[in-house]
Design goal:
The protein is mostly helical. It contains 3 helices and no strands.
């Protein structure tokens, strides 16, 4: 089920390269290529842990120091 989101998101990001496409075709995963990606599907929410990690990362400047104004 996770590939139902992974494959459309890879396509949206331009990461379904010929090499990836060939590997996913062998695994029959390209069947999910035309499903809604995370941007098109408002029901999709990121994991809370990821949101917290990204928020922490964004609040830090280069070298792990807090960002200054």
């Amino acid at each position: 089920m996770m590939f139902q989101k992974i494959v459309p998101n890879l396509k949206r990001l331009g990461l379904l390269t010929p090499r990836v496409r060939a590997a996913y075709e062998k695994l029959d995963l390209l069947q999910f290529e035309h499903l809604k990606d995370s941007v098109e599907d408002p029901e999709t929410t990121p994991p809370q842990e990821l949101v917290q990690l990204l928020t922490q990362f964004m609040s830090q400047g280069a070298g792990g120091q807090p960002a200054s104004a």
